[in-house]
Amino acid sequence: MKNTWALSKILLFFRRRGSCSLRKGDRGAVSIFLIFVTMVVFSIMAVLIDYARIAAFEWRTEASAQTSIRSIMSAYEPSLQERYGLFAYGQTDPALIAEEVLSDHAPKGAEGFTWVKMEVDQHSSSITRPLGRLEQFDQQIMEDMKYKAPVQVAFELIGKMKPVSGAMQEAAQTTELLNKVRKDFDKRNKELDHALRFQKQARDEAVSSDIGRSIADDIRFLYSDDPVGSISFASDIAAQYADYARMVREDAELEEEEKIHGSSIKHYENGARNMSDSIRRSASRAQGRHATQIDRSIQALQQARILNQQMKTTIQQVRASQQGEGYNQVNQSSVGDAGQSDVSEQLKTVNESVDSLVLPDSFFEEYETELQKQKTSYALLDSEAGSFQSVVGSALGGGGSASGLRGAVTSMWRLWEQYNRDYVKNPNNIITDREAEISKLKASNNERRRLEKEANESLNQATSLLSTLTNMDQSLQAHRAAYQDVQAKAEAIRAYNQKPMSEGDYSGRIKQDPSDAAEQSMEGMDDLYSGLGEFMVGARERLYRNEYAFNYFTSYDPTKLKGLFTSKNPTEELIQSLSIHNQELEYVMYGYHDPMKNIAAAYGEIFAMRLAIRTMEGFVQCAGGAHPLIILACAVAKGFSMALSDMIQLVTANAVPLSMYTPNIRLSYSDFLRLFMMMHGDKEDMLIRMLALIHYNTGIDPIKQGTYGEIHLEARMKLWFLPGMMKMLGQAGALEGEVKDGYYETSRVSAYSY
Question: CB-based contacts of 609: which residues, under 8 Å, 6+ apart?
């Protein structure tokens, strides 16, 4: 008001001076011009002053909003920050903090001259984005861990695993190769056994037909002529035919009542007819069974050939696979020492020896030709038996010849003798030679069975050892309530984030076949080195998350299990140690809501890793074995035995050597857990479990604790000079706020996130 009154007085003064000048002379024009210029300058200065005040007011409003939200967000939960390095808003009403801060920036009823007098109309604040949102939690983990330099720790682990990377790569491929080929190898040999058995059964059908004993008892039938008598062989028909023909001729010259050879002729004809018919029937029946068995043998042989080709394909596919990228990345890293190349070379030699298990195609081609020849050989005999029957039928009545019958019998005899020599009689016949060849393929079986029995015994010990961990249900009831509480909290967080249900990331089960278990352990090593390789090429987020879990959550003390592993009787100390507070990291990794399953999963995975490394060593130690599958069985047996010893050593000293080739590198229980976190573990599941443990341990529900604050502030300031002109400037877009009733009004939104 004072400023407006002063302006009115000035204008009145110039107006009076201007009137006097007009009456006295023409110099009044200059006075009017001066008044006009002064008014323009004053207007401009007034606008600039208020504009400067508005700019300062905008800055002050922004500063007030920022200060308010920072002050609000400084009221975080101290227990979360101190224990877990996390920030989440506490219990204080944010409006109270904002009111206190704004009262300092815009005190009500303040006296004295103030260039920028801010008046707060209203303000509102909100806390959103709860810590229970997985992306918020993960972001805070990244922020926390990037300043704690966990990279060096990870590089130390990679450095520890580097010396065996090359050997493990070769061992993993060799184990997979031998185990897959082993199964097809045994199936192929079993089919060859079937082929041989059916071939023998075909031979037995031929022998059981008695056709060989029905043809002749001696080669002398070719040269002898016998009188008509009993007919026991086909050769008797030929040998007696001359005498039979004589009797027929003699009786033919006599009258009916004078014939003297009727009974002898009839006896010969009946005997010849019965013998030829018997041989024909016997040969025909045997031929059907013989052909059927040979066909079955050929089918088994063809199946064996398919399996043999499958072995060849398996070898090509396994060797062509690119599963070793992780091994290469670790091996080529700049950390750690290189492994022993001679170990890898020995493993390569074992790998290459697998080719010897594949039979050449010529084996199957020759064997099938052999079977077809056997089938044809007896079919010819059957055909000759039919021809002999026809010859005998034609010869009866005297219309034949002894030489013709001898020729038919001789043909049958020679065919049978050939079959007999090739497949029955000679101890070194075709079938026995083939049997000896197939037996060579199975020469390793006895030694393999012995070694596999040893491996099975060790496998049973390992299974029993690990099952001991899970067979303590009655002793662990006191801990189950805590796990159920954590489970409920985890499911609440899962539901809030709309994630599907999940239970357990690793079963810890060992396959019941030792070689399968060894291959399974090698697959685990593939996953482990793949995880390490991903870190080498920049998978830092997973590393940060893993290291956060390792740093802020407890892991189990393995020495507590020593008594259980040695005596299998849980002590009271052991039972008390199974509280969830002592195995949080295992729960985060595996996710079982059970006092023993997470530890059992960890030890199952440790055993698998030790089995893989010890099997690699076993390959080197057993490489002198002549047969590749004996080498596999020997390596697996040694692997199981040494892995069991490692488990006892781990619970005794909490450290085991990485390998016999790296005695100075030792892995502790915590090293194993760190490695396994790089190997598996779903990101979202791990975050949910960590949040559930945080809720359980602190009593602070992360779903209700926000990490993002926002304040909305509305303020105004009284304009000094020309509010109308300032309003016009606002309408033109020159101002952020708006002018209303002589006041400049503006609003600010300021946010802050932990």
Answer: 521, 524, 525, 528, 672, 675
**Weakest-pLDDT range from 37-51, 360-374, 441-455, 638-652:** 37-51
- The amino acid present at 579, given as its one-letter code, is S
End-to-end CA distance of the chain: give it in Å, rounded.
48
> What SS3 string covers 250-294?
HHHCCCHHHCCCHHHHHHHHHHHHHHHHHHHHHHHHHHHHHHHHH
Average pLDDT over residues 153-172: 85
Which of 36-50, 113-127, 366-380 ranks highest by mean pLDDT? 366-380
DSSP state of 74: T
| The most confident of 24-28, 52-56, 322-326, by mean pLDDT | 52-56
Q: What SS3 state is found at 329?
A: helix
Residue with tokens 């805590």, as numbered in its chain: 482
Q: What local confidence, expressed as pLDDT, does residue 113 receive?
A: 54
Output 46 or 578, whichever has higher pLDDT: 578
Q: Which three-class secondary structure state does DSSP give residue 512?
A: coil
- Which pair of structure tokens corresponds to residue 416? 């049978």
Mapped onto helix, strand or coil, the DSSP state of residue 486 is: helix
Contacts of 54 (CB under 8 A, 6+ apart): 717, 726, 735, 737, 744
Q: Tell how strand 662-667 and strand 738-740 pair up.
A: unpaired
The predicted pLDDT at position 712 comes to: 95
Q: Quote the distance between the C-alpha of residue 600 and its chain's center.
A: 20
The closest of 126, 87, 122 to 106, measured between CA atoms, is: 122
Rg (CA), the chain: 51
Alpha-carbon torsion (312, 317, 320, 326), positive or negative = negative
Q: Give the per-residue pLDDT at 724.
A: 76
4 has a pLDDT exceeding 60: no
Range in 14-18, 218-222, 349-353, 376-380 with the lowest mean pLDDT: 14-18
CA distance 242 to 372: 39
The one-letter amino acid at 392: V
3-state secondary structure 700-712: CCCCCCEEEEEEE
Of 684, 651, 681, the closest CA to residue 668 belongs to 651
Residue 89 clears pLDDT 90, i.e. is over it? yes
Distance CA 745, CA 717 (A): 7
∠ at Cα 22 (21, 25), nearest 5°?
75
Q: What is the DSSP letter of 76?
A: B
Residue type at 174? Answer: T
Query: 706 forms bridges with which residues in the sheet?
Result: 130
Other C-beta atoms closer than 10 Å to the C-beta of 245 total 20
CA separation for the pair 194, 218 (Å, rounded): 36
Confidence at residue 345, expressed as pLDDT on a 0 to 100 scale: 87
Alpha-carbon distance of 109 to 130, in angstroms, equals 39
Euclidean distance between CA atoms 524 and 609, whole angstroms: 7
The model's pTM = 0.80
Amino acid at 470: T
**HSE, side-chain direction, 13 A CA sphere, residue 23:** 5
Instruction: State the burial class of residue 625 (Cβ atoms within 10 Å of its Cβ: 0-12, 13-18, 19+).
Output: buried
Residues 46 and 38: their CA atoms lie apart, in Å, by 12
Q: What tokens appear for 1 in the block?
A: 């008001």
Which residue, 71, 63, 73, is CA-closest to 709?
A: 73
Q: What is the average pLDDT across 92-109?
A: 83
**58 is written with which tokens?**
């905008």
Nearest Cα neighbor of 169 from 338, 312, 356, 348 is 348
Out of 413-427, 461-475, 705-719, pick the least confident: 461-475
pLDDT tens column, 582-629: 999 999 999 998 888 899 889 999 999 999 999 999 999 998 877 999
CB 323 within 8 A of CB 239: no
